[in-house]
Amino acid sequence: MKVNEDKTKICHLSQDVKFLGYTFYKRRNKDSGGEEWKTAVYKKSRKKFKNTVREILDRRCPLGLGKCKSKLRKFITGWANYFKYGLTKNERLKFEQ
């Protein structure tokens, strides 16, 4: 197996870690006072999501309205399922509507 040195790095766990479209970060727990790891969708992944939705919703709609609607539904469902651990409660509610 060949390691891609541009994408591979060793970092200290005190830093935020970006991996597979997620950002993993450590925050202090208000209740216990200890630290806990949290997840969020990485900014680059959100930007890519928005760009893909724009491509699917092209005004010309070359695939026809039915196929565009189906393709958009599949994309959003897949994206939301993959990133369900990094979405906030409000973001999850938006996807369910």
Task: Give me the secondary-structure topology.
Elements: E1 17-19, E2 22-28, E3 35-41, H1 43-56, H2 65-82, H3 89-96
Antiparallel strand pairs: 1-2, 2-3
Write a concise synopsis of the structure shown.
The chain is 41% helix and 18% strand. The protein is an alpha+beta fold and 97 residues long.
Output the keywords.
97 residues; alpha+beta; three-stranded antiparallel beta sheet
Question: What this model shows, in words?
Answer:
- By secondary structure, the protein is an alpha+beta fold.
- 41% of the residues lie in helices and 18% in strands.
- The model has no long low-confidence stretch (mean pLDDT 83).
Number of helices: 3
Beta-strand content bin: 15-25%
Low-confidence parts lasting 5 or more residues at pLDDT below 50? Answer: none
Overall 3D shape? flat
Strand arrangement, largest sheet?
A: 1-2-3
- Radius of gyration in whole Å, from Cα? 18 Å
Q: Termini distance? A: 43 Å
Helix-residue proportion: 40-55%
Output the helix-strand order.
Answer: EEEHHH
Structural class, from helix and strand content? alpha+beta
Major pleated sheet: 3 strands, antiparallel
Kindly state the number of beta strands: 3
Arithmetic mean of pLDDT: 83
